[in-house]
Amino acid sequence: MPRPTSAAPQSSPDTPDVSRRTMLRGAGLLGMGMTFGLSGLLSACGVAADDDQDSGGAQKGGTLTMAIDGTSAVNDPAFYTTLGDWMAVDCICRGLTFISFEDNTPQPDLAESWEISDDQLTYTFKLRSGVTFHDGTTFTSADVLASLGRQFDEKDKTLPDGASRPLNSLGANVKSLKAKDDLTVVMVLLKPDRTVLSRLSDIGGRIISSAALKEKGADIGKGLVGTGPFKFVSSTSGQSVVLEAFDGFRLGRPPIDRLVLQQVTDPSTIVSSLISGDISATQFTPYSSLASLAKNDAVTVYDTSLGFDAIMMVDARRIPELEVRQAINLAVDRNAIVSQAFFGKGQTPDGYTIPPSQNGYDASLKDLSTQDMAKAKELLKAAGAAGRTVKLMAASDSWHPKAAQIVEQNLTDLGLKVEVDSVDPATYFGRVIDPDDDYHDLMIWERNSYVPDPDNMIGAMAKPSGVYGDFATGFASLKGADAFENDLYEAKNLPDGAERTARYTEIQRRWAEKYMVLVMLGYSTNPVVSGSGVKGFNSNALGNHRCFMEKASV
């Protein structure tokens, strides 16, 4: 999650992961209010590919231009500003492990292999030999210690001001991190954590050249050096990040010569530029345009997996009666939200917080997210809350306004008076974590699958000490909430399979039925569209805001 604002609670282990998409997408906090005019840059760099083709049939050369939400010109695994900046990190650096999002299992990347002790406390990583950084230095255990060590230590001198350190909670559980030799790293935990390999695949776990860190220090984000398929060329705040193919990438040089991540904030410009070819690909396509784009031969609309939760958080400090929170949940018309806010690019929730793309998904939880207006009215009347005023806020972009409109009508039909505030995306997160905000009763938001594991979904949202459980919903203040801390810890440490799924199912049902501080609105995906001539990139990953372009061609 994004953390450029001092308002963000840095002590919370979940802070770096909370709905990154909605945080600074509007870019106002960074002074990036401009709408990009594509013609100038693209006439200079072009998007046409050379005629060369490799033996696999992919065209070589050319520039692939991606529309992004924004850029602060700071690309640092320890510092979140915009999704675009972290997409650049994804392209420049690689981690010890890798998750493709076509499969949720962590695979070896810069770590060739690993061994885990029987007590699940000691991880011994065997590193790949002969891997080269963009600065020409050779990858060794020193780079792992420097890259992860700065995430684990809030006083590390290479951290920029406001660093979010998305691996800080992992670091709090690390007893020691040492190099056995140049190609062996040993991590010893205080308590078992079966999500370590998955979490090391996230953007915060990307490895930086220790030589570059020593040279640039806290300014590393202005010239990031990794081992990834693309190396940094230039960046301009509010405009673009320019990368070029790295000849020495260990999996082979990418087919394209150049990758441009270009800030485009106007939805109509995104659509017209996809059709014209000025934009090669993006996951920021407006939902309202998907049907028409699907009929246009100039573009390809991808059927990506449903990886994020559309949610409405309920502040139990503002709405203290469980019956009223339950009535609100029962009043919501999810079918209308999926069809009208997401234009059919989604699904009504039946597995509660764990979406269909993840292990642990269980459709037996469907009853937790069904509409029953008659029962909702009974609950509201019994609580003596008919006619009460509730306040609702939602970001002013993407699917959020329409969802807010539908919820407003649903709750009016229920018998509540609803006041709605539409909030600029750049300031929305600051208001979500402010329990004193005037509109903190109900908050529409989303949770993305940056690490495709239930611990990243229900594990973050039902954790009483996290952003959702504390600042947003006040769940931590409710009787019995503290037990979920241990319950979620035990669940994440079960091996994937029926027992783990059953445990998460039990936790979700108990959390919903006894507390109902989170109303599920639907499952969806960030809509990926590319030009019809763009081939080979991982669209499923891009639907989760992960940027794997090493095989893409134009």
Automatic annotation (TrEMBL):
Name by which UniProt lists this protein: ABC transporter substrate-binding protein
Signal peptide residue numbers: none
Keywords: Signal
Organism: Kineosporia mesophila
Residue ranges occupied by any Solute-binding protein family domain in the UniProt entry: 105-466
Source lineage: Bacteria, Bacillati, Actinomycetota, Actinomycetes, Kineosporiales
InterPro entries: Peptide/Ni-bd, SBP_5, SBP_5_dom, TAT_signal
Pfam family, one: SBP_bac_5
Alphabetical list of Gene3D superfamilies matching this protein: Dipeptide-binding Protein, Domain 3, Periplasmic binding protein-like II
Tree of life domain: Bacteria
Entry annotated with the keyword Lipid biosynthesis: no
